Amino acid sequence: MSRYRVQVRVMPRAALLDPQGQAVEHALHALGFGDVAQVRVGKHLVLEVKAATQEEAVAQARTMCDRLLANPVTEDYELAVEATR
Amino acid sequence: MTRVAVIVFPGSNCDADTLAAAREAGSDAYYVWHRDADLRQADVVVLPGGFSYGDYLRSGAIARFSPIMGAVAAHARAGGPVLGICNGFQILCEAGLLPGGLMRNARLKFLSRPAWVRVESTDTPFTGLYDRGDVLEIPIAHGDGRYVVDERTAAELEASDRVVWRYVRDNPNGSTRDIAGVCNAGRNVVGIMPHPERRNAPILGGQDGARVFYAMEARHATQHAVDVRAVGDRHLRV
């Protein structure tokens, strides 16, 4: 068994209104960053799992996302999995 | 007497009001702790408002895995009435017992104020004592109340009379199609963002929400009446 570091990026669905992103965008405009557009706010989760292979670690992480870490109705997620030493 | 189980999660804060409203309507209401696995012969289950698990990760996302939720899902699958109010609605969506999800209010602000909703469907265990089109003043108290659902499901909800309440006058949170509450395909699982338990007596500023709780008791009474009629001219309980 090896340890794998899993990073999960969860973002609100692109089609859905992201009021947090809009508020941040307005604040950036107010600071003078007038060219900023398409700001969206999501979350980043980091965790470690034990698994026999990288594929198994990815499969575990995917199941965690589907069951708990992301809501498929409102959010999309991306995974990055790497072996730790 | 209808047996009404009010589920208490860590962070529930409308449990006492919900219990009081159910008792006021004549029900035998009692608390069930979220770590229990037994609903104790409940006829109706209510998931009250609050901030279960501090709304960590997403509102309702962690509460849905509480031990009691297995029994709640089994009760729902068997056709038993389940009502989720505010955080309870969020938990039912997270649990997949209701379609859609609840996201941050469109204008970000936490809203605690009266709202107005129109009763769109009376064909549920909780709205049978209203008339379609009744406009009710019921308070809201939420930060994540924006109901979202994909267009196909939204159209399906409308076509099958499953939008139960809709905001009128204004849409406080930016919800899809002004939706304030929905039910499942079986019509026994219902979620609502506003708090009917906070408007069940004149001393609370009005009683527009009271019939949600009286309906639980009336439904039970009707059930018994049907049982009595089922044995013909002899007035026996079956």
Question: Mind explaining what this structure looks like?
Answer:
- The complex is a heterodimer of chains A (85) and B (238).
- Chain A is an alpha+beta fold and 85 residues long.
- Chain A is 33% helix and 34% strand.
- Chain A has a single domain (2-84), classed as Mth169, Chain: A, CATH 3.30.1280.10.
- Chain A has two helices and three strands; from the N terminus they run βαβαβ.
- The longest helix of chain A has 16 residues, at 54-69.
- Chain A is elongated, with a radius of gyration of 16 Å.
- The N and C termini of chain A lie close together (12 Å).
- In chain B, 24% of the residues lie in helices and 24% in strands.
- Chain B has five helices and eleven strands; from the N terminus they run βαββαβαββββαβββα.
- In chain B, the strands form two sheets. In chain B, strands 2-1-3-4-11-10-9-6-7 form a nine-stranded mixed β-sheet, with helices on both faces.
- The radius of gyration of chain B is 17 Å and the shape is globular.
